Amino acid sequence: MTATNKTTITSPIPIIDFSKFLAGSKADKLQIAHQIDSAFRDVGFVYLTGHGVDQQTLSQCFAWSKEFFNLPLATKTLAPHPPGGSHHRGYSAPGLEKVSQHAYDAEAIAKLREVPDFKESFESGNTTDESQPNIWLPEDALPGFRAFMESFFPLCEALVHRILDALSLALDVPEPGLSPTHSESLFQLRLLHYPSIGLEELKENKRSRINAHSDFGTLTLLFQDSVGGLEVEDPKQPGRFSPAPPVEDAVLVNIGDLMARWSNDRWRSTVHRVGIPPMVGGIGGKEEEKVLVPDRYSIPFFATANMDTVIEALPGCWDEERPRKYEPVTAWGYVQMRMAALYAS
């Protein structure tokens, strides 16, 4: 039995028309920049409509993702994610990655892995990123897959840089703003598939989709399918989560840990998770044993700054009343520390 009933959901995350920033007047740009600033200060997340990535292209990307994950395991593993987290490219089978929220020692990571994440993923990045070359399937295994993903990457890349422009405007960062700190576009395009799973398994915490965590780069773009299940923690009430449902024609954008540090916590790197979608959340009793939570697909795009960028409090984000909270750290050093925890054995 697979649940198909729909539930109306409200979310605390603002919805902003980003087309007014992309093509508006100076006054429009400033207004949108301040709205995004407010969203990131309050929630750490924002929905952007009018973002410039057209729906037809997004639909094609989801179709390619499904084709890839429908391949036999033996075929998918022809593009294997290397051991460890230093080279984050290729295919990861269910259970290989386990998200961790600032857990770095072996004992803490082992404890987290007692409840495996039931998902699979495929990672690719900028074709010019020599530090992490892409790992593709042989072309005859899925003809056209590589070409499409390489064409989709620049669309997301351009959107990240325009959002950075908006944040620069919100903070009054002098020209050329924050975009040049991401000039190498060391970004990561991830295809995610959460296979269908028994509702009872999730409710009894035998397996998880993704446990509560924050992202560790600067910005994340997220395109979701219609299934739902993403939840965002209330920054004012830790432990209380609210749905972040798919919004038609919108990309969900959130702040990562590096940007939170950079802004001296002006912007929130909010904890989020993927759990039981609302369409099945209210089912209980004997019916629960028969219910399958449907497959879920999502496409996150993770941004981080150039490797040697020193992350320390930006001007305007600290003063005598708001002293710097964090020691300076390079973008690459911080990301590698977090990646090592994801793939620790």
Automatic annotation (TrEMBL):
Name of a matching Pfam family: 2OG-FeII_Oxy
PROSITE patterns the UniProt entry points to: FE2OG_OXY (PS51471)
Swiss-Prot/TrEMBL keywords: Iron, Metal-binding, Oxidoreductase
Molecular function as annotated in GO: metal ion binding; oxidoreductase activity
Domain Fe2OG dioxygenase: 185-305
Biological-process GO terms, alphabetical: small molecule biosynthetic process
PANTHER family on file: FE2OG DIOXYGENASE DOMAIN-CONTAINING PROTEIN, OXIDOREDUCTASE, 2OG-FE II OXYGENASE FAMILY PROTEIN
Sequence similarity: Belongs to the iron/ascorbate-dependent oxidoreductase family.
Name of the protein in its database record: Clavaminate synthase-like protein
